[in-house]
């Protein structure tokens, strides 16, 4: 294995992880901002009002994007398995 292959492997892994995490985190972040604006406008400071909607949205994102997330992992591992013979040989 040469340094170029190792760098490519690591960069693909990091890019895949970031891509998968963004699908789960960004919707929760946007919903958190909306809830914070609502709380500031109404002066309601209930902790469950910030936690519960974000948790439910993240769960829904796992349900709806789960197939895509698993497919991304399978594609990355398929690419890795194709690179293994080149790394060893």
List the helices and strands and how they pair.
Blueprint: H1 3-42, H2 47-88
Helix pairs in contact: 1-2
Structural class: mainly alpha
Mind describing the biggest β-sheet? none
Element order: H for helix, E for strand = HH
**Helix content range of the residues, please?**
over 70%
Number of domains: 1
Give the mean pLDDT. 91
Task: Describe what is shown at a glance.
With 89 residues, this protein is mostly helical.
Note the main attributes of this structure.
89 residues; mainly alpha; flagellum; membrane
Protein model, in words:
With 89 residues, this protein is mainly α. It has one domain. It is built from 2 helices and no strands. The protein has helices at residues 3-42, 47-88. Helix 1 runs antiparallel to helix 2 (47-88). The longest helix is centred in the C-terminal third of the chain and has 42 residues, at 47-88. The chain is elongated. The termini are close together.
